[in-house]
Amino acid sequence: MNKKILPYVMMLLCFAFAKAQLESSQWFFGEHAGIDFRSGTIAPTTISQMQTGEGCATLSDEDGNLLFYTDGSTVYNRNHEIMVNGTGLKGNSSSTSSAVAVPFPESNNLFYIFTVDTDDLVYRLAEGMHYSIVDMTLDNGNGAILQDSKNTRVLERTSEKLTAIENGTNTGYWIITQFEDKFYSYELTASGLSMSPVVSQVDPFIELLDFFITNVDVAAMRGYIKVNSSGTKLAAAHFSNNTLADFNGITSILEARSLAYAQGGELYIYDFDNNTGIVSNPVPLLIREDEGSYYGIEFSPDGNYLYAEVDYLRPSTTSIFEFVGGEIAQFNLNATDIAASKRTIYQDQNQLFRGALQLGIDGKIYHSRINQNALSVISNPNDNNIPVNYGFNEQPLQPGTLSVYGLPIFVQSFFQEFEIKLENGCDGDAITYSLETNTQEYNVVWDFGDPALGSANSSSDREGIIEFSAAGNYEVTAVVSTLFQTITLAKTITIYPQVQINDLDLNLTECDLGPNATFFDLSGIAASINPNQDQNVSIHETRDAAIDNTNAINATLPFLINSSEQTLYIRVANENCYQIVELLLTIVKCPVQVFNTLTPNDDGANDSLQINGLRDIYDDFRISIFNRYGRLVWNGDATTANWDGTSNIAGTNGDLLPAGTYYYVIQLNDPEVNDPAGYIYLTY
C-alpha cells in the first residue's frame, strides 16, 4: 500500500549525543591539563606536556588511542614527546582556535593539521591559515610532520576562528575560517585540499584596525566559530567589534586597550550547507549595543540550542578593563525569534567568563575559565523541560594542572546525534523505523506505543518495519544505550484511517475494432469502486502519475487503447491516505456480426455484404456463399471485396445471381472463436 507523507511533530524527551567513534575521547589543554572519557567516567590526567593559553587540538583514533595533540605551534606524539619535525607550525597558543586536526579521507595514517595564527601585539602581523600533514607510519608509528607539507599557506589573512565538519556526501570535510565579513570554506577530500574556497559574504563586518597602538586590533579577532554536528547551522562569536572611529583622538595606550576590550562584540547564527560550504542567512543574537563580549560558544547535542559565554566589561583608567560580571546564555534555535529566546542559565561575578565551551562525547558541555583547577559543566544542555544545570568548577582536574581560556576543538561531526526516523502513515501500511546516526556502537529498545500488537510492540532491531493495529496517535520511544549513558528518544506519529474501496472485479473487456484498438467506457468506474463520497477517485495511465496525482484521464470521454491490453491505475484518496488499484483493459476478438440482407441496386445501402468485426481483426478468414441447393456460388477472403450478389465460381463468374435465400459459412481460422454460419436474403 501507499501512503501520503505529511509533516510530523517530533517530541524529544531526552535527546543527547552518544558514543560515536572515540576520536574526541582524550583532551589536552591549558597548563598541562587533560581529561579522558574512554572509560565512561571522566578521568583527569597529568600526562600532557603542553602549556597553552588558548588554542589547542587533540586527536585519537576511533578506538580512543591517542595520536597527537598540539597548541598550533608544537605537536606532541602519543608518547607525549615532541613529534618529529613537529615544531614551528604557524599557529599560536594565544589564538582562539589555533589548530584543528582533520583525518585525510580514505587514509588511516595521514592527518591534516590546520592552523590559524595571531599576534598579541599587532594582529596585522599574523600569518594567516596554513596546513601541515602528519604521517603516522613514520617514527615507528609515533608519527612525523611531512617536511614538504609543513606550513603550506591556505589563506594569507584570517581571524583566530577555525572549525571543521564532515561534508554532505560523507566524502570529506569542510574546514572553515572567517575574516572581516567573509567565511572561507575549504573542502578536503581524497583528492586533497581544494585551494579554491567557497566564499560567503555575510554580516557582520569585523574591522581589522589600522591603528598605531598595539594590542588593540587583536581583540576583534578573538572568539570561536562552531558548526552543529549535523552540518546545518554555524555560529560565530566576536569578542569585540571596534571601528577606527572609536579611537579618534585617543593617544593613551591604556585607554585605547580598555576601549578595545570593553565596548562589546557580536554573536551571530547562520545557516550552513554542508553540501556546498555556503554560509547564509545571518541572524544577530547579541550585538555591540548589548555590551557583552562573546568568546566561547557551543551547540547542544540535539542541535536545538546554542550556548554562549558572555563577559560584561567596563572601560577602566587603571587597568585594561573592569570585570562587571558574566553569564551563560542559551538560545532556542527553533524559536521564531531566536534572539528574543535568550535566557540566562547562570551568572556570577567571581572572575572572567571568557573561555571555551566544548561538547564532550558524554553529552555535556564543558567551560574553561582562567587559572582554575577544574572545568565548569553544563550537564543537561538539551534542556528537556527542566532547568539547565551549570556546575561551576564541577569537573576537577589533576593537582598542579590548570585550565586557561581554551579547550581542544574537533571535527564537529565527531559528535553525532541520534534521531528517530519514523513517518506518519495510514492504517495497514508497513512503516519503516530507524535511527539516524553515524554512531556504530549502541543498543536500542523500541516501544511503538501500541499494546494491541502484543510482542510485536517492542523490538531491539536498529531498523525494521512495523504495521500498527489501527488508526490513531502513537508515541514511539527508543531507549538507546551507549558507553556513557542511556538516552530516551520519543516521537509521536499519526496513523490515519485508510481509504475504503469496494471489492470489485477490476477487469474490463471490449471487442476489437481492429487492428488491436477499441474504445473503453470509464465513466462508471468512480461510482462503482468508491463507497464514500468524501473520497476522490482518479484514473491514470502510469503508477507514478497515480502516486503523484498528475495527468488524470478524463473518464467522461471514451478511452482509446491500441494494444491487446493495457493496465490503468485507479487512485482512491481521502484527506491523508490513498490506495492505488489496477484496472486491466483487455481487447478480445468478439463474434462477427453479419447483416443478412443484401440489396445490390446501387442505392448506397447494403450494396455489398456487411460483416462487422471481421476485416482487420481476423487476418486469415474465408467466406463461402451457397444457394439453397447447397451449391457454392461465391467465396472470398481478406484479399477480395465484399460479396455484391454475383458469382465468382468458374463457369458462372460475374453472373448476377437470382434473388432468394443464400447461406454463408465463415472460417475465422482462430481456435478461440467459433466459426459463424447463417443465411442471407438477396433482393433487388
From TrEMBL:
<keyword id="KW-0732">Signal</keyword>
<dbReference type="InterPro" id="IPR013783">
    <property type="entry name" value="Ig-like_fold"/>
</dbReference>
<protein>
    <recommendedName>
        <fullName>PKD domain-containing protein</fullName>
    </recommendedName>
</protein>
<dbReference type="InterPro" id="IPR035986">
    <property type="entry name" value="PKD_dom_sf"/>
</dbReference>
<dbReference type="Pfam" id="PF13585">
    <property type="entry name" value="CHU_C"/>
</dbReference>
<feature type="signal peptide">
    <location>
        <begin position="1"/>
        <end position="20"/>
    </location>
</feature>
<dbReference type="InterPro" id="IPR026341">
    <property type="entry name" value="T9SS_type_B"/>
</dbReference>
